Amino acid sequence: MVEKLIVINPRGFCAGVEMAIKALTWMIKLFPTPIYCYHEIVHNDWIVEVFVKNGIIFVESPDEIPIGAVSMLSAHGTSPVIKNIFVKNSTILIDSVCPLVTKVHHEAKKLSSNNSQIIYIGHKDHDEAKGAMGVAPEKMTLIEKPEDLINFKPDDPTNVSLLAQTTLALSEWENILKKSKELYPEIKIPRKSDLCYATTNRQEAVIQIAPKVDTVIVVGSITSSNTNALVNTVKNLDINVLRINNVDELNETHKLGEKIAITAGASAPDHIVEQIISKINPKNIQHFTNIEEEEYFPLPIELRKIQKNLITILNQIFPQLKETNNIPNKVRDRDWTATDALKEL
Ligand code: SF4
Question: Which of 47-61, 242-256, 266-280, 309-323 has the weakest average pLDDT?
Fold first, then answer.
């Protein structure tokens, strides 16, 4: 029997994932399916399956979409070459890239135009790293671990900079940063770090709680980088960790120990966390909040323009509805969560 379960906050959906899920739900409401989405909209198996059932076709290359398609680009960011092909071949294209990934793309563009050679810390098979590396491939070298720095051979060691995937474990990023600073003392790092607020907040919260429990359950998919970063963070503390996608993967709860904590990666829906808590059925449940998150990212600008035009047209056709306020002047996106959106599918 589990004596105590600590539910860690913040966990689950970040502002970028919220925005991307809502954006793709709007696409289903506005356009006939199939709608094509470049890469999984977010790295979560359950969410991808819901969208597939609702007519979304996820593709790994722009060659897979027909000319004239309605398309979306995922939250992970897309390289300029690939994006241009989507622009050319789609009648409607919405880019749901997270603004924090866009920031890294802007930095890569700016630094490379200043002839700086860039160490990009990331995972080579991750969609975000592939997209970012495509911004300035000739100036960027992907580094996954400190030993890889041997492959980085800048022409000018005084003009080197460092960028990173937003969803890494703090520990893996810090190790490469340290080694890079030793090799290139003048290295430029645009901000304190490129790791996003959601990644760092979830890791900092789990670091507070993990030493107090026997096992930490991390909810999220194996393809989710920030989920894996949470797993590695707990492992580095020498605490037992169990990553699961859903409640069906939770077996033998008696082996987890008397005290358990639960958290979730930034793309894991909270109803799965709730189902797991119910199955564990602990004697006591405690909630731990390390920091309150208030970040909000509005829908992609192209989608907001379509919504605005639609409201204008409806108001013109049905002026009586405008008077009764049945057609709002503005869609109140802040009042509608990704969880609400998923419930409508
Ligand atoms: Fe954006 Fe961070 Fe969420 Fe990725 S994990 S979508 S970078 S907020």
Answer: 309-323
Rounded Cα distance, 200 and 38, in Å: 27
Which residues pair with residue 240 across a beta bridge? 215
Report the distance separating Cα 191 and Cα 299, nearest Å.
Answer: 25
CB-side exposure of 81: number of CA atoms within 13 Å? 10
Sheet holding 56-59, edge to edge: 56-59, 35-38, 69-73, 90-95
Q: Which residues are catalytic?
A: 128
Q: Does domain 100-183 have CATH number 3.40.1010.20?
A: yes
Instruction: Check pocket membership of 266 for ligand 1, CB cut-off 6 A.
Output: yes
CATH topology identical between 4-13+197-289 and 100-183: yes
The domain segmentation of the chain, as residue ranges, is: 4-13+197-289, 100-183
Question: HSE of 314 in the Cβ direction (CA atoms, 13 Å)?
Answer: 15
String of b and e for 43-75 (b: at least 16 CB within 10 Å)?
Answer: bbbebbebbeebebebbeebeebeeebbbbbbb
pTM over 0.85, yes/no: yes
The finding on whether 167 has its CB within 6 A of some atom of ligand 1 is yes
Question: Is residue 93 in contact with ligand 1, taking CB distance under 6 Å?
Answer: no
CA 71 to chain centre: 19
